[in-house]
Write a structure and sequence with these properties.
Blueprint: E1 11-15, H1 23-35, E2 39-41, H2 53-63, E3 66-70, H3 85-99, E4 108-113, E5 131-133, H4 138-149, H5 159-179, H6 189-209
Helix pairs in contact: 1-4, 1-6, 2-3, 4-5, 5-6
Length: 213
């Protein structure tokens, strides 16, 4: 599979929680997007202390025709307050689609939550939009994302096969990290994308050669 092109139509903005509890879901989302031929983008890709976070988010929203927004994290923190970053970034994306130029008006997004219709209890304004439930299950999220990315009529591998490939990638990740002198627990977003691209390239080469390298 050729590398995903860095074009407006092929870039996918990923708006989701960035913590240890969500890491398994995040990794599965990134792999699925890349394996389906698209380029995953998120605010973690650039570490610049001089860059205002909101400005960075706005640039990403402008760069990406597609976006995945997971609004499932609504639990209050130890101070009793919820996190509103994901709904805010979803709002920026929908605003760009509604009020932007012709290119921005072509935006499409996938909104995820844990359970069907749960979002109506905390963002009732989303009523009427198609919000998909992943059940806090990365395998289910992989299939939902695959089905959403097949909107152009391109033939993508099925969700079951995509999940199987993701599991194979996870099994080989320690070896890939060794090759690049990385530690699996310390991978940055860029490291993860590099590892995915390397594994896909090596796997396809092995298939062409008729043997595993």
């Amino acid at each position: 599979m050729p590398p995903a092109r860095r074009t407006y139509g092929r870039q996918v903005f990923i708006n989701c929680p960035f913590d240890a509890a969500y890491q398994a879901m995040f990794d599965a989302i990134v792999f699925s997007v890349f394996r389906c031929g698209y380029l995953p983008r998120c605010s973690k890709e650039v570490l610049d202390s001089g860059d205002i976070r909101l400005d960075k988010i706005v640039r990403l929203v402008g760069d990406c025709r597609l976006a995945i927004h997971d609004i499932s994290r609504t639990e209050p923190n130890k101070e009793g307050l919820p996190r509103f970053n994901m709904p805010l970034e979803l709002g920026l994306f929908l605003g760009a689609k509604r009020f932007g130029d012709k290119g921005q008006q072509q935006k499409r997004c996938l909104i995820l939550d844990r359970e069907p219709y749960r979002y109506q209890q905390f963002i009732s304004d989303l009523s009427g939009l198609d919000v998909e439930a992943h059940g806090a299950d990365p395998e289910r999220a992989v299939t939902v994302i695959r089905n959403w990315l097949s909107f152009k009529g391109s033939v993508l591998l099925s969700g079951t096969i995509l999940w199987r490939e993701y599991q194979e990638f996870q099994e080989h990740l320690p070896e890939i990290c060794d090759k690049f002198h990385l530690l699996p627990a310390e991978l940055t977003f860029k490291d993860t994308v590099t590892a995915i691209e390397y594994w896909l390239s090596a796997t396809e080469e092995s298939v062409r050669q008729g043997s595993l390298k």
